[in-house]
Input
Amino acid sequence: MAQVHALKTNAAGSVYANLGLSQQQMSLIESVAELAQERFAPRAARYDETAVFPGQDFDDLFEASLHAPAVPREYGGLGLGPYRGDVFTLWMMTKEIAKADLSLARCWEGHVNSLVLLDGLATEPQKARWFKGVVQDGDKWVAWSGEPQNRAPGEAASFGTTTEAVDSGYIVDGTKAFCTSAGGANWALLLVNTAGPGGARHATASHEGLLLLACDLSDPSISVESMWWNPIGMRATVSHVVRFDRTHIPAANLVGTPGAYISEGWQTCFIPHYAASFLGAAEAAFEYAMAHIMSQHKEGDPYIQQRIAKMAIDVETAHLWLRHVATMWETGSHDEARIAGSRARHLIEHLAEDVVRHAIRACGARSLNKPSPLERIYRDLSFYVRHDNDDHILAMIGKSMLGQSHDPSFYKP
Ligand SMILES: Cc1cc2nc3c(=O)[nH]c(=O)nc-3n(C[C@H](O)[C@H](O)[C@H](O)COP(=O)(O)OP(=O)(O)OC[C@H]3O[C@@H](n4cnc5c(N)ncnc54)[C@H](O)[C@@H]3O)c2cc1C
Output
């Protein structure tokens, strides 16, 4: 029991013991874990119920100087990231946040992934300008592609933007859906295509026209349409529809060269980051189940013992996979890491759902009665794993094994 119980503890526990983290890395993760458990977890149910952006949580991260993890040290950040020699610490920070609130973790990922993109693709003057805003003012970033091209049944309008080059920059017109942190973020990296709608994920046109445009979200031409977003879970990500009414983006806000997002494989940096969030949800479900079972003195039940064993193995396996992929990024095996991240993401989706299923079985119906955290985790996870289609992920992995052409970013068939 002592060993399993140690798994339930956070950064100081045995779950991190053999993952190659230094004392300094552990204490960074521990700082996030403390904030997450003491402040974010108690707020999660209210943010979920009211579908409100978790702004206070971001304020706390900023006050604790944890808000700029992927900003390079020379610009005042923590200098973490896939191309900075330490991505595992970053993923474990995210995992601790996801343990408290999976919606918050999605907003955080959007922010952090945008910082990774700026670090990798922006010019020095752009970095100086935007990283200052993050480090000194607590600016929150997000990246928005979402332009599904087929209407779902009952959906009144379709989504999509057009992007026109003008002398002074670009005019973006139309709508995007799944805009995480809408109304909460200050800046968005818009993934738009001069060849037509579809963003990055749903575009049929060549990726050569795909641009990353840094968009100041206080521009009066931008509005949030909040009626569309009413999902089963991940409610506090406020991933609303956002309308751009001929929004002007200055030429100085073009980040990187057209098409670089796909040709340089940037999405593959973020795929295992989603898995770190799934793992956080799973670990929270496991801890909930442990506490529930112990409080009801059901430790002696052999079926419960088996479910606890399965959960512990699932959580540990997911950690090992993330460590494995992180090592590839950190040691320069980037081509390998790009596909291995999808293998990890595929597996961890299933491990996480397995943990939640075992937790529900072990704890019973009342664990799905609000305000049980397990009820929220169940809803959030079932929705969040839809971010990518697991069938297509698996097909992409198979194609990569068979030497066939494949899309490691968005798994397009
Ligand atoms: C909580 C949450 C937050 C998100 N936040 C963001 C964000 O901040 N930024 C952002 O850019 N995106 C974000 N996304 C959007 C996400 O990345 C997808 O764009 C979105 O999930 C697509 O919606 P869909 O699955 O309903 O539609 P579709 O993409 O239409 O997919 C529906 C189904 O059809 C399948 N499918 C799609 N195309 C084909 C095809 N050609 N052939 C066969 N099958 C196909 C899909 O795999 C899927 O199973 C978020 C998603 C979620 C769930």
